[in-house]
Amino acid sequence: MNIKYIYKRARILGIASLMLIGQSCSDLLDEKVVSGISNEYINTPKGFEDAVNAAYSSLRNYYGTQPGLTLTEYGTDIYATGADGGYKGFHFYDTQLNPTVDYLASIWDELYRGVNTCNAIIGRAPAATVTDAVKKLRVAEAKFLRGHYYFILFQQWGGVDLRLTETLAPTKVTKRATEAEMYAAIIKDLTEAIADLPNSSSQYGRATKPAAEMALAKVYLAKAYSSSKASDDFSKAATLCSNVINNYGFKLLDNFASVFDENNQKNSEIVFAVQYTSDVLTNLTNNTGAANGGNNLHLFYGMQYDVQAGMQRDVLNGRPFKRLRPTAYCLDVVFGDRVNDSRYKKTFKDTWYSNKPGTYNTAFDDSKATVTFAAGDTAIFIPGYEMTKEERAKKKYQVLVPSKYSEALFPTLTKFFDTKRPDMTYESGSRDYFVFRLADTYLMLAEAQLGAGNKQAATDAINMVRRRAAWPGKQSAMEVTTSQMTFDLVVEERARELVGEQTRWMDLKRWGNLVERVQKYNPQAAPNVKAIHLVRPIPQTQIDRTEGGNATFAQNSGY
Hints:
3-stranded mixed β-sheet, single chain, two-stranded antiparallel sheet, 559 residues
């Protein structure tokens, strides 16, 4: 039984989970909680299991959702705005990015729900009527999740309210923890989780030892660039990444495209995934940015193919919300090598086949006046280079060249395409979201070894990813030497491999080069981005709920 089928269980434990998100002191609404479940339910065998299952559910509000995507891919060096949608302050770093933005509050609140559910599990475990073995395992899962939730909060907002015991009633007494306190608590949770988690689980989607090791490696990498850095942070991260690579049987797939095959989601490369399903009740979550929840990343990277000549919207090609388009730097530099590296072709959709036959005037291709299509004919082709007008005139379809890219027309990321949706308007997707995968582990190992001064080990690690990405017969051309093994290579290799996977903003924040790279490669954001944007504004709702307000729970500088 996959854990995806037990995510649906109760936010009924949320009485305790609403720690910093209760109503104001207004007496306009006198809420009466009606429930047949007592506060002692968690101590029963069923209640204890339900609590642990509920603790996982907060992952679904951050991973595979528009709010999570907005906080992780908007406003970076590799993605800029598409034509549609709101929340563009996260792209532009202008006054639209402010403490009242609802996505900030919804992610904040949901992560704290998850934290407090974990606190309840850990604190009440001694009284739970389950075996010691079950207690040990489920508490380890809760510590993995709590450490992970706090790491997201910490990376996005800096020091936050660090609560490690269950909050049983609304409170207005809060304070911000220091950087050192945040790192200490997160590292302690994940270290203890590693000690007690199993190598694997019969319930796919539960926390395991390698998932916790990879989570902790990410923490040590972030710490290595921070003011709390220690001389052994890089080496600790390298050891953890090596454990994940060597000890559990994970294996890079031979074909990069196969990683995102929607019919092969439980593949040998996946270390930890958030589970989704076609069951509407199971997928239902709060504030995900799409109707009925689900993994809805399939919506946000698509170009406006559906109003072009010979095309109409269908399930196969997706519902294009046009929220993000790749920057010129992403396409021309990151994916500049298309002779040896297969990832441009396997990451972006470049061909659309007509599903609306007929004769049409051309829109973006000035090499011909009209085009005529039968069903299944090529309707749109994106060559990825500036094909001449004469070359385009010979084609029976429209050719979209880089000079014609716009906020509506651009190469479309295919990693999250979901063809199993019941109809073309359906927003909720059923694909799992890959939080940790092995290629990321190799790239983290390369970064850690480079930081530790082991250039040969770093080179060996990054070449594992680069060889897999090569076109057949081009493996040797993709390999780099130790003299080519630089930090800049790590920065660009992570973009090539992980583009769109909710990692980029967190990477740039960790490295401390967000401002520099956005100014250099993202013209939309360059005029406004500055050092204050290495953290997000604290939600105003949080400050308003705090006794003493901003004087007690200070807003991040500049907001």
